[in-house]
C-alpha cells in the first residue's frame, strides 16, 4: 500500500514539474531571444534506384539569450525535439520559444531537390534488372552508381561538398567483391565498399560480386563541406628532379642538333658523290658511244692503207705523175683523219679525267669503318627516334657498300688514262709518218726514179698498213673494255643514287626529330615552375576553407555554421525483414534517442 502511495506521489510530481517548467519558460521568454549560430542536418531517403522519396531537416541553435525566435523553411510540418513547448508554422515561417542553451526542432519537407542527382542501377549476369526482381537471386551481381549535379538545386553544395558513398555487404551473401575506384574494408564479419566524390565532380562507380540468395542493405551517402585547409606539400625535391629532367632534355636537344648538322654534312657529301658519279657516268657513256665511230673511222683508214699498198704494188712503169699526186692527197687526208681521231680521244681523256677526279674525291670523303654493336646500342639508348636511327644505320651501310664497290673497280678506272695516252701517242706517230710520206712524195714528183720510188713507197705503205692493223686490233679491244666499264658503272651509279636519296630522307627525318626535341626542350624549360603552378592550382581546387555555409532550406536563415546531408536508399530485403527492421528502428530511435544522436 505504501508502495502505491509513493508511486502516486511520484507520478503527480512528474505531471506538475513539466507544467511548472513550461509555465516558467513561457514567462521568461516573453521577449525576443537570440542565437549565435545555427546548424542543419538534412535526412533524405531514396528508393532503390536513387529517386528521392522523403526528407526532413533537424535544425539546432546555440542560444545566447532565451526567448522568442524565428526560422524559415518550406516545411509541411515541424516538431519540437527539445521540450514540450508549442511551435508555430505559417507561410514558411517557424516561430518558437528557446529556453535552453541548445535548441532542436525537426521540419518535414516535400519536393525539395537534393543538390545531387543520384542514379542507382543493377545488373545480374550481364543483364539490367529492376530492384524488384533481384531479391533471392544468384549470380554475378553489379551495382552501378552515378552522381552528377542537380540543376534544380542550389549549386553551392555541389561545388563545395564532398560525398562519401558506403555499401555494406553481408559476407555470407557476397563473395569476390571487386571495384576500381573505391576501397573495400572489413566491417566485422561483413565488407564495406566506400567511394568518395570530390566537390564539382561527377562520378560513376561500379561494384561487382558473386551473390547467393540476394539481399542488400541500404546504400548510405553522407555529404559534408570540404572545408579543411590543405597545406602545400614540400615540392623542393620534386622540382629539383624536374630541373634535372629539363636539363637532360636540353642536352638531348643539343645532341640531336649536332646529329642534324652531321647528317646534313653527310647528305651534302653524298650529293657531291652523286654529282661526280653522274659526270663520270656521262663521260664514260660518251666514250662508249664514240667507240663505234672510232672503230668505223679506224677501219676506213686501215682499208684505205691496204688499198693504197695493193695499188702501188700492182702498178707499172707507166704510172704517171697524176696518179702519184692523187696518192699524195690520199695520204694527206689519212693524216688529217688520224689527227681528228687523236683530237677526239684527247677531249674524251680530259672529260674522263675530270669526272674520275670528282668521283675519287667524293668516295674518299666517305668515312672508313663500320658502326659497332655497342655504338648501335648507345645510339638506340639515346632516346632518338628509332625510325631515324634505322635510316642512319642503313645509310651508313649503303655508303660503306658504295665505297667497297668503288675500291674493287678503282684499278680499272685508273687504267683508262694510261691506255688513252698510249692510243693517242700511237695515233700521233702514225699521223707523223703519213704526213712525212706525203711530203716526201710531193717533193720528189718532179725529179725522181719512178720505179725505184714506187718500190720504196710500196714498202712504206705495206709496213704502215701492217702496223695500223695492229693498232686497229688494240683499238677494238680498248673500246670493248670501255663499253664494259660503262655498263658496269651503271649499277654502281644506281647504288650511289640510292645512297644520296637515303641521306636526303635521313636528313629530313633528323631535321623533324630536331624540331621535336627543340619543342620538347622549350616546353620543359620551365617545367619546375609549371609543376609548382599545377600543384597550387590543384590545392586551390579542393581547398574550400574560405567557403561560407548557407542554409539548405531557406536563404532567409542567417548565422548558419554547418549543413550536413545524410542520405539512404531503400534496402532490398524480404517484407518481413523490412518490417522487423522498421520496428527495431522505431524501438531504438525514439524521440530521446534521436535527440541524443545529435550529441553523439
From TrEMBL:
Superkingdom of the organism of origin: Bacteria
Residues annotated as signal peptide: 1-24
Transmembrane spans: none
Keywords: Signal
Protein's name in the database: X-X-X-Leu-X-X-Gly heptad repeat-containing protein
Species, as recorded: Virgibacillus salinus
